[in-house]
Every structure is written in C-alpha cells, then in structure tokens.
Write a structure and sequence with these properties.
By secondary structure, the protein is an alpha/beta fold. It contains five helices and seven strands; from the N terminus they run E-E-H-E-E-H-E-H-E-H-E-H.
Length: 195
C-alpha cells in the first residue's frame, strides 16, 4: 500500500462527532501499551502521527486517522489499565460497545495482543465479545522483535489456544520496530474494505 496522505482528524467521544464521509473504518483494540499508536505509525510509515505515550491509558477517546482519503484507523482507549477509575472504565466500555455494534462504516477490528505474554482476561473477553457479535476481526500479535524467531510459533500457539481460535482465523505477527507483518496486515485491511 502506497501512502500518499495521512492525518489525524478528531478525538471523538459521542457518535455525532464521528466523521460522516462514510469511508471504511478499521478499529484498533488492545491493552494499554500493546503498541496501537506504533502500529498505526508503522503502517503509514510516519514517525509520530499517532502519538505514542510512555504513560499507559493516555488515549481516552476514539482517535480517527484518515489515510489516503481511503479509510480511517480508529484507535480505541487501551483496556485493562488499573489507574483509570471504574466509572471512567465503564464509560469507555459503553462508548466502545456502542461504536462496535452500531457503526456502519466499521469493516474490521484489529485486536492487538503482545506476543510476549498469553492473552489477558481482558483480551479474552474482547475476543469472545467480537466473535459473539460477528464483528470481523484480525488478531495482530505485536512486539515480535522482542522474542527470538525460534520461539514465535510457540508463542502464537499460546495466543490461539488461550483465545480459543480456530485454525482458519488469521493472526498477523507484527513488529513496529522491524516492519515485520506490515505488508501482510495491509492485505488483510484492504481485503476487509474491498470485501
């Protein structure tokens, strides 16, 4: 995918703030610190369009990034971060649930999981929820560069088993450091929006 243009559009909290140009949307969900912003930056080959933060739990709205006037990446607040109040977490939950169930242009959710660790309870719940509602989904395992290549298969097996995935479901092994998985992920994304 050749990126000619990418820009941050809006941080939205309510549906009336979402863009109305009906471009396909690709949502990114995952724990705080799983590398959502880094993945966006690597996909569009820009250093800091999506602001990465050393402080987990920083994203508290849906951040919209428009790419090539062709699609949006929608970056969700990270889940599973303890320093956020229960009330705030519940509010995010409602916002995300409404978005996932009602947003027409949503074509795919990239659920991101840190390859170094087995999927957390939050990861498992998110996966089960997306499957239950039939929302198109691709698991992206991040930080592949932090694990020796010889152990990738073992870690991928743990991810698949913990989530209860079936063999036909795609998993993209990704590293925002090395760019591993970038082309493959673009194929999945384009397949989803052209499908």
């Amino acid at each position: 995918m050749k990126i000619t243009q990418a820009e941050f559009i809006i941080s939205a909290v309510k549906p009336h703030q979402y863009p109305e140009d009906a471009l396909p949307e690709i949502a990114l969900a995952g724990r705080s610190n799983v590398g959502k912003s880094s993945l966006i930056n690597k996909l569009i080959l820009r250093k800091n369009l999506a602001r990465t933060s050393s402080q987990p739990g920083k994203t508290q709205q849906l951040n919209y990034y428009r790419v090539n006037d062709q699609l949006y990446f929608v970056d969700f607040p990270g889940y599973g971060y303890a320093k956020v109040s229960k009330t705030e977490r519940a509010a995010w939950g409602v916002m995300i649930e409404n978005y996932l169930q009602q947003r027409e242009p949503l074509k795919l959710v990239l659920q991101m999981i840190d390859l170094r660790h087995p999927p957390s309870k939050d990861d498992q719940q998110m996966y089960a929820w997306l499957k239950h509602f039939g929302i198109p989904l691709c698991i992206v395992t991040t930080k592949a560069d932090k694990i020796p290549r010889s152990r990738w298969d073992k870690h991928l097996k743990v991810v698949r088993e913990t989530l209860g995935m079936n063999a036909s479901e795609p998993v993209v092994l990704f590293s925002s450091e090395t760019g591993k998985g970038r082309e493959e992920l673009w194929e999945v994304i384009l397949g989803a929006i052209e499908g």
